[in-house]
């Protein structure tokens, strides 16, 4: 924790956290740049950086600045040996990654599944692969926890998965299962909420204070909202379930599910079926959709984009975000013609709410959920509560 090696003073812990957050979220900085970014004086920065070095949280390296008068300020960077294990269970696969504090994904593996994962099996697989990584790529790592991005509502108070409908999970005590399997603290969150966090801090929504994020995965569509730079959790932590909204469908011929919700109509499964695939990762599906030249495939893409545009316009009218970010297969749908989708959204959005609105695909791509899950670990393990 950030408190290691400190004097136990609350202000000092806050300052340590401020310095560590700065280099973690904004990238390596010289001591001089940290002084400017934090408002702390030079001697305080030197003292704090020394503490963080002794705690094994940052490293210093010589500046590569040349031709400048005077001694260049050392560069302070997150210690890449500090690692979080990130996990994303889905209906067709289990994605695992080891994410370093400097943002590097040290290891990654996708385990294809032919049967639905149970919470117990998920924890078992994570424990087994972590044990293997410890003897290999993570030999020298300081692993601070496990983060899990789950496709379903997660209770904020204790991380219990209230329901992951496509996985068949009900009230799953995933944090305790993960801790038992790995011996590490575990932090569980909704996949879209963690994807939104990742894109807000490091991706397409970086610098934006008001964000709507929709994540499209094998289990359907999840979402998250950031208002004034703060995630909107709701009373129990379940806010953002855009996929369960009733879609606005102008042409009845576009409807595929009687009384269906958005994720029934804008569907990865329907896209896979259109291109003749049983399963695929995001890159494979994107390539298949981009290269398909069959009328039926083009018609299905156009149908889903029409319905998606209305859903995004509804979100823009209600939330008035600065940016709407789309992840997963929704990003694939958008990037087939991002300008066209943007026009379709604006056509259904109040002019005032459309001012300054930006539609973007997730910049972190397939890494977004793992990065978000790792960030939940770093937040809990390294930064004291504000």
Helix proportion: 40-55%
Radius of gyration: 22 Å
Number of domains: 3
From the N-terminal CA to the C-terminal CA, the straight-line distance is 14 Å
Q: Residue ranges: pLDDT <50 for 5 or more in a row?
A: 3-7
User: Which percent band covers the strand fraction?
Assistant: 15-25%
Along the chain, the helix and strand elements come as HEHHEEEEEHEEEHEHEEEHHHHEHHHEH
Tertiary shape: globular
CATH homologous superfamily descriptor of the largest domain: ATPase, nucleotide binding domain
Largest sheet: 5 strands, mixed
* Overall pLDDT confidence: 93
SS class: alpha/beta
Report on this structure.
The chain is an alpha/beta fold and 386 residues long. It has three domains: 10-78, Winged helix-like DNA-binding domain superfamily/Winged helix DNA-binding domain (Arc Repressor Mutant, subunit A, Orthogonal Bundle), CATH 1.10.10.10; 82-194 and 368-382, Nucleotidyltransferase, domain 5 (2-Layer Sandwich); 204-363, ATPase, nucleotide binding domain (Nucleotidyltransferase, domain 5, 2-Layer Sandwich). The chain contains 14 helices and 15 strands. The protein has helices at 10-26, 31-38, 42-54, 119-134, 174-182, 191-202, 262-265, 268-275, 282-291, 295-319, 329-335, 338-346, 351-354, 368-382; strands at 29-30, 58-61, 75-78, 82-89, 93-100, 105-112, 142-150, 161-164, 169-172, 186-190, 211-217, 220-227, 230-231, 323-328, 358-361. The longest helix has 25 residues, at 295-319. The radius of gyration is 22 Å and the shape is globular. The relative contact order is 0.12. The model is unreliable at 3-7 (pLDDT under 50). InterPro entries: ATPase_NBD (IPR043129), HTH_MarR-typ (IPR000835), ROK (IPR000600), WH-like_DNA-bd_sf (IPR036388), WH_DNA-bd_sf (IPR036390). Residues 18-68 form the HTH marR-type domain. Pfam families: MarR_2, ROK. Belongs to the ROK (NagC/XylR) family.
